[in-house]
Amino acid sequence: MKETINVNLAQQAFTMDKDAYVTLTNYLDDIGRRLPADDTDTLADIEARIAEIFRERVPSPIMVITYSTVLATMQQIGNAEMFGEANRPLNGEAEEQSRRRNSRRFVRSIDDKSIAGVCGGIAEYFGIDSTLVRIIFVVGVIAGFSTGLLYLVLWLVTAKQSRTNTI
To answer: E strand or H helix at 17, and its extent?
Structure first.
C-alpha cells in the first residue's frame, strides 16, 4: 500500500503516489534552478506539457500517477541539464545553507582546547586561529586586564560542544 498525494499541475488535478511526487518535485526544482530567476513562463510551460503527457498516459482522472509514469515523462521531456547550468542552489540546499549560517552559536570546543576549550570555541565562532585568541588572552592577563576573569566566566557560562554539532 502506497501513500498518495493530490497535486495541482498546470491547474489540473492529479493523484500521485508519494515516490512519483518526490521525483517530479525534484525534477522541476532542478529545472527551475537552471532557468533565470525571473523566467517563470518556461517552467509553467514545462509543467503544462507534463500535465498533457500525464493525461495521455493515464486515461482516467481516478487513476494514480505512478513512479514509472513520472520517469517515462521525464525521459520524454529530457534531462534537467538540457536547460543549462545550475545558477541557484536547490531549495533544500539553500535552506540547509541558511540553517547552518543561522545556527551558529558560541560553545566551548572539545577538540581544540588547552584548558577548558573557551579560546578554541571563540576561534571557531569567529572563524580565526585559536592560537591568536590564546595569545590575546595571555597578553591581556599579563597586561593586567581582566581577561583571566573573563575566561573563568566564559568557562562556567558556556556549554561544551557536543560531538553531533560539529560541522
So the answer is: strand 12-17
SS3 of residue 146 by DSSP: coil
55 in Cβ contact with 65 (< 8 Å): no
End-to-end CA distance of the chain: 39
- Phi-psi map region of 108: left, alpha, beta (phi>0 left; psi -120 to 50 alpha): beta
Nearest alpha-carbon partner for 115 in 130, 101, 102: 130
- pLDDT confidence bin for 167, thresholds 50/70/90: very low
Helix H or strand E segment including 43 = helix 40-57
Q: Which three cell numbers stand for residue 96?
A: 540547509
Model-wide pTM > 0.85: no
Between CA 72 and CA 78 the distance in angstroms is: 10
pLDDT digits (tens, 9 = 90+) for 44-66: 899 999 999 999 988 877 789 99
